[in-house]
Design a protein that fits this description.
- With 436 residues, the protein is α+β, with helices and mostly antiparallel strands.
- Helices cover 54% and strands 17% of the residues.
- It has ten helices and twelve strands.
- The strands form three sheets. A five-stranded antiparallel sheet has the order 2-1-5-4-3.
- Helix 1 (2-54) runs antiparallel to helix 4 and helix 7 runs parallel beside helix 8.
- The longest helix has 53 residues, at 2-54.
Amino acid sequence: MRAKIQKSMLLLICAAVISSFVMLEIVFYVYSLNQMKKEVKQEVEYIVAAIHISGTSYLDEMDAAAVDTRLTLISEEGEVLYDSQEDEYTFQNHAGRKEIREALESGSGEALRSSETVGKRTYYYAVRLEEGMVLRASKTLDYLIPIVLGALPFMVLTALIMIVLAYFLAKWQTARLIRPINELDLEHPLENSVYEELTPLLQNMESQNKAKEEVADMRKEFSANVSHELKTPLTSISGYAEIMKSGIAKPEDMTRFSEIIYKEASRLIVLIEDIMKLSKLDEQDVDMEREDVDLFDMCREICNRLAFQAEQKDVHLELTGEKVLYNGVRQILDEMIYNVCENAVKYNVDGGRVKIWVGNTLRGPKIIVEDTGIGIPEDQKERIFERFYRVDKSHSKATGGTGLGLSIVKHGAIYHHAEIHVESTLGKGTRMEIRF
């Protein structure tokens, strides 16, 4: 960035310097030309005045004085009557020359063209005399070129000095412009007092920093929760296994200890599987094909799988609706719906009800799961999809589970671009909608 700014500034300054000197040369040339024209006209006025006093014989006297301005006296018909520098073109008819025509018509005329006589750029100025004749003066522009070229070395030297100064100025100014950017406090972007144009970028960086902090906090919390959740069953398994290994356990307790170890190991396996599922959903690393899934049939299968668990709590499962086809990943959809329905059974009251409705709406397929369970406090509805978050921590051991079920539901919904809407009243139940 520094090099680009410095290079751009230097190029602009060099272009400005060079173009300025070119314009100055042109202006100098035009000014010198105008001065020459002015001198020629003034000289012609003096000669005309002298001719009016002394007659045309005055021209012979001037010729003898070797005046550097070429003078030509021309008749009304264009014939050359006198020329101070006679040559092969002198006595050609001049009636068609621009300056002559203008002088005959309006009293004076001028022209700038290459001379047929000397082949050089020449300025002509003609004035009509009282007798009807035309006096013309001409002067080549050769002497202007040396004047312009004489100033050129000085101008080139000045330009080089200015370009060198411009280089150091551009370098200094670039460093001055870049310094506030190099000194930005990226940890606290909005605390920087810097260019207004960088405000949107700094605001975006502030948002990204906050998002990174939130992600970092979530990872720390997740790591702590994972460690705790893994440590609990492992400690239990290790403790009972050690008792059995040492021979302290009574023979009649061996079956109970083995059952506890089995349950804790199963719980550990489920937890690890859920963590792996979440990891894949987080990274969108789902190597499964989409297919048309009948959501109604899937809900009926899930009800059958939950029948034993619902029977133990005396919870009535009810499925209504219609056949609905949705193109998605069958396993993820099954885990989503199963976790929602399992929670409705798990956190229900004895003798409660769970109603499941599946159908098509104007906005697409929808699944509604209603229960008459313990409900969710209003201030905790936004947190139920967090990993390992449990509304009723006191009953978490009794209800079982890993605390990752609704997180899987949330990430499964994100994967399928679905929406989840939760309505709940504490002590009365919860209504959860999944809109595809």
